[in-house]
Amino acid sequence: MTRDILLQIAQVLAVLLLAPLLQGIILQFEERVQRAQGPGIFQPYRDLRKLFHKQIVLPETASWLFWIAPVVAFTAMMTVPILIPVLTNFPLPLSDMGDILGGGLILTLGGFMITLAGLDSGSAYGGIGSSRAVMLAILAEPTLILVFVGITLLAKAMLPFVVNHLLVAQPAVYWSPAHLFLVAAFFVLLLVETDRLPIHSSTHVEVYMIEEGRILEYAGPLLALLRWASMMKQFILYTIFCNVLLLPWALSIEGTAIGALGAAAALMFKFTLVGCAVVVVETTQSRLRFYRYQEPLAASFLLAVLAIIGTQLS
Amino acid sequence: MLVAHLSPLAASLFSLIAIASLLLAFVMLGSRWLRHYLYAFALESWLIAALSAAVGYYGQYPELYLIAVLTAVFRGCLLPYLLLRIVRRLNVARELHVVVQASSSLVIGAFAVVFALVVATHIGDTLGLGGTVVVLALTVMLSMKLIGFLMLTVRHEAISQILGLLVLENGIFLGSQILVPGMPLLLEIVILFDLLIIVACFGLLVQYLISHVGTTSSLKLRRLVG
């Protein structure tokens, strides 16, 4: 029991501490693909440290929402790892608090608070960023729900652990068209939700920014919290993609310390593989203009529908 | 019926090929470059050829190997090549004016697939074959037909309309391969030659349209000529 509680704390800590590393790895790979030197994979840690040492500057127009949003977003991102298999492939004491939909709800709550904060300060860029983010959410959310429905039909359960066990135990299900289409649909969602091309721009502060526009008014430690929360969101989505859908192997089965450490190492290896695919997309794709945002998401919607059709076979 | 007693591996292979060709139909529906349609169509035909060969292998129909080769040669190489020649002559690289945006047509197509699934499930249940690869084959066949109709409706360029027709035909062929393998060889050959004649006539029609009307888009054809 004590061991399980420790493991659960370790899951949250793994997400907290390894999330900047994932961001660093992806950014560094991108730089290398573009034949640049790159700042190294530990740059996000240095950025966060720098931001935490700055003083807090608040806009005069900001209300209490402006304060509370980073804290809520950060807390939400620390809550989700309790629910999903990060290090162990068996449920831990608090894992049955919520299913996949519950995790999605908490993830969206963080995004919602940041949207409110973007509107709160009354700056033009914050408003534009929030409106774009909401439009993207409107486009992405139906697909996300459909992917969840597909997973539910595939595994006859909404718990990520059940899906993980099923995919490990039955290669026929793993290679079935339903599962492969779910993976493809989720990959598009992964690109959209983690601020990557073809929708989000790769340079940060510019006229077309979406995520960056919402948090443009923040500075210092609050900005650091928001950055960290967005890195953790990326880490969590990668975890769901790898440990639940794409690569459900190499998790700690018995829950020993060595196993958890090995699972963490394997996790970073899997993420590096997925990160390479993301880097390929970011290098080969150009940014879509605003009125074509729905195209990748419509394709993802379609893949999810095809996956649901596929589940009707067995 | 062959499909009612398939091994799980064969069933999953068939379903993978069927769904992949449905996906390629969606690629044709969602892209706006004529050249991409052609590539997707050629690939789809190759997949159907592979499906024919697989059905021939698992169901012991030797003549299906011949049909597979014919499909690959005619649908996979010759038809796309002829169409590619027409596209080169036309100087039209893409659909310029779309009625329905690519993403909206994808979503409409997704609803068509859901509709096809409902119909196929009903048919499968009536035949007592619910939950087998039959339902999937019926779904893919019906939805490829609906997508072909959709392409005929929402596209204006003559070349995308003929491709819509070919997708429709591919859907029927794919369904027949899974549902009634062992159709007489003669019928298949007749269908293939029919297609060839369609494409040849279409080439003539395009020549006529260019010389007399000056366009191949049906948007410009507004005047009735008696």
Show the helix and strand layout.
The complex is a heterodimer of chains A (314) and B (226).
Chain A: H1 2-33, H2 43-52, H3 64-83, H4 100-120, H5 124-155, H6 160-169, H7 171-174, H8 177-193, H9 211-214, H10 220-246, H11 257-284, H12 294-311
Helix pairs in contact in A: 1-3, 1-10, 1-11, 2-10, 3-4, 3-10, 4-5, 5-8, 5-12, 6-10, 8-10, 8-12, 10-11
Chain B: H1 8-30, H2 34-59, H3 63-90, H4 102-127, H5 133-154, H6 158-179, H7 185-212
Helix pairs in contact in B: 1-2, 1-5, 2-3, 2-6, 3-7, 4-5, 5-6
Oligomer: heterodimer
| Radius of gyration of chain A, in angstroms, nearest whole number | 19 Å
Q: List the helices and strands of chain B in order.
A: HHHHHHH
Low-pLDDT sequence parts of chain B? none
Shape of chain B: globular
Through-space gap between termini of chain A = 38 Å
Largest sheet of chain A: none
Number of helices of chain A: 12
Kindly give the count of domains of chain A.
Answer: 1
How many E strands of chain B?
0
Average pLDDT number of chain A: 87
Helix content of chain A: over 70%
Biggest sheet of chain B: strands, sense, closure? none
Give the number of domains of chain B.
1
The chain pair with the largest interface is: A-B, 21 and 29 residues
Order of helices and strands of chain A: HHHHHHHHHHHH
Structural class of chain A: mainly alpha
What is the residue-averaged pLDDT of chain B?
Answer: 82
Structural class of chain B: mainly alpha
Q: First CA to last CA of chain B: what distance?
A: 52 Å
